[in-house]
Amino acid sequence: MAKKKSGKRKRAQEEDIALDYDDNKSNQPGATANTTFLPLTGQCHHYRKVGEVPFDIQKYWHQRHSIFSEYDAGIQMTDDAWFGVTPEPVANQIATDLSLRAPDEKTTIIDIFAGAGGNAIAFALSERWTNIIAIEKDASTLACAQHNAAIYGVSEFITWVNADCFSYLSENRSTIDASSTVIFASPPWGGVTYSNTEIFDLSTMHPYSIQEIHKACTDMYSVLYLPRHSDLRQVAKLAPKDKKIDIVQYCMKGASKALVAYVPASST
Fold first, then answer.
1. Mapping DSSP to helix (H, G, I), strand (E, B) and coil, where does residue 254 land?
2. Which residues are CB-neighbours of 35 under 8 A, at least 6 positions away?
3. What is the number of domains present in the chain?
4. I need a labelling partner for 68 at 20 to 30 A (CA). Which of 195, 239, 252, 268 fits?
5. Any residues with CB less than 8 A from the CB of 99 and at least 6 apart, and which?
6. Which structural domain, as residue segments, surrounds residue 51?
């Protein structure tokens, strides 16, 4: 993932935004606000040596340069964020594929589980989107995402929202133009035990089932980043009438990391 070197891309906002939806009901897509970067907290870390790293995330830390190629520039992560971040080559390929797949009228992308920022950064670097909105419920994780996007030179092209994504989508339904919006969802999969089954039951995905996520964005083109062994029958049930879902397995070094379902919007 190369750092952004130019300002060719149209800014999504006049200034960087860290919107706290619960405290400011005027925070809606397209709104502007004073520049606010959330401060890094004690939950944000840049581990330099394996001895500093909690045991359960050491295997991810050993892959840190595949997760963020600019890791040594000071990438920050909360411990929980290591489990959900999309590896950089996969994030870049998804951004490229989505740029080609999404119809031209799609100009806004909302990353509803932004995490440490990997996908939002890739979307910004693709220079495909007029507006990029990244929603993250945990303030410390969002602070990491803002910090990481700044390292890649794209933080000002992303609207940052500190909120519960379901509340945000529900309360802003009247101001979100479904015809021009794509939802990207890389939800929590329920911890490391998700891989213990041969076929993953998406209805048990914790804390949000696939049905709950799909219901929140059914009227918009949506892109779902899911476990590689997800039950494809459950994914197929998300298809609107007379439309199909494209499913792509994304691999690194010959091994699948995840599948992505490209789900058309339901007819209105």
1. coil
2. 15, 16, 17
3. 1
4. 195
5. 126, 128
6. 17-263
| Chain centre distance of CA 77 | 15
Verify cis geometry, omega within 30 degrees of 0, for the bond prior to 227: no
Which residues, including other chains, have CB under 8 Å from residue 195's CB and lie 6 or more apart? 227, 229
pLDDT of 34 above 60: no
So what's the pLDDT on residue 37? Answer: 86
8 Å CB contact between 230 and 238: no
Q: pTM of the predicted model, to two decimals?
A: 0.88
Closest to 113 (Cα-Cα) out of 96, 134, 131: 134
How far apart are the C-alpha atoms of 145 and 33, rounded to whole Å? 18
Cα 189 from Cα 83, distance rounded (Å): 9
Lowest mean pLDDT: which of 9-18, 68-77, 124-133, 172-181?
9-18
State the CB neighbour count (10 A cutoff) for residue 78. 22
- Residue 245 included in any domain: yes
Q: What are the b/e assignments for 232-258, b being 16+ CB within 10 Å? A: eebbeebeeeeeebebeebeeeeeebb
Mapped onto helix, strand or coil, the DSSP state of residue 190 is: coil
3-class SS letters over 10-29: CCCCCCCEEEEHHHCCCCCC
